[in-house]
Amino acid sequence: METKLLTSEQYKEAGAILKKGGLVGIPTETVYGLAANALDGAAVAKIFEAKGRPQDNPLIVHIADLSEIDDLVAYVPPVVYDLADAFWPGPLTIILEKSGIIPDEVTTGLNTVAIRMPSHPVARQIIKAAGVPLAAPSANTSGKPSPTTAAHVMHDMNGKIDAVVDGGPCEVGVESTVITLATRKPRLLRPGRITPDELEEVLGDELIIDDAVLGKLKEGERAASPGMKYKHYSPSSDVFVVKGPLDKFKALVEKEANDKTAVLVFDGEEKEFDIMTLNFGAEDDDLAHAAKLFDALRTCDDEGIEKLFVRCPSDEGVGLAVMNRLLRAAEYKVLEV
Ligand code: AMP
Ligand code: MG
User: Fold this and answer.
1) Whether residue 223 has pLDDT greater than 70
2) Helix (H, G, I), strand (E, B) or coil at 60
3) N vs C: which end of the chain shows fewer Cβ within 10 Å?
4) What residues line ligand 1, using a CB cutoff of 6 Å?
């Protein structure tokens, strides 16, 4: 299959492909999504094939207008309107009990469905042009770092999907915050750009943080969000998160480095190293860390890097989302120096 690279002005063509049951890589404010008509089980099944995605990892359904939610879920708890008011369109996914029109391919047989209204103008235009809600996970090969540019999507999906729409680099850079309202108390399943503090302000209630957000699931433990149990965001290179001051980080790297080693360091620290350096933004800039992480991991793979040492970022605010992804990419290898 030839994968067309479309410009953002060609959103109508993308919509037409989706309407016919095709797959399109689409820009969103979080990461690029691999979209199909969410109401067409056969189209959705092709997403799993293109990504090599495990059959029990459900997808997020993307809408362009709040009124679309009524048909997709069994019922809309009133707090959804407060959350939508505060955060939609934007990087928040809400899990609710599903309605009968959602095919099993989307939810992998669960009785709940994840819904999000993205803010990226091109994503919204594509959803409207398709005229249906779009099921879309991240547009990477399963297990690899999520794509934050159209080139990343092409790298993983060229020849496997109908088209990719280039909407420029993603602003947020990590996937949406996922909360479930299908449990007795609201629960955070995946951290993202919308932080627990911001959510609690609207919920007026304590948000339970799922154990899998920073911790590692034990063997056989059931994941509330199936996506959290898989080896995830992993580049081919071996990633190490290093906690400690710069001078000790540098001493460790000098001892371990060869010509296939790289470091991911904060602004101004690059000059300390004579191996490949990747920039993580300013040390106190959690938004920059989020925007730069996946591109840095992908660059390592492209350059044949075998070991990547990462300066440990803060896990406060959006840093919670950054650490959630980084720890998985590192398979929880954290060195204290
Ligand atoms: P991705 O967009 O590739 O990160 O994949 C969607 C994420 O949403 C995965 O981590 C899923 O586990 C999660 N998800 C989607 N639907 C549900 C659901 N009904 N219940 C729990 N998690 C879900
Ligand atoms: Mg994903």
Assistant:
1) no
2) strand
3) N
4) 57-60, 95, 107, 110, 112-114, 137-138, 175, 178, 189-190, 225-227
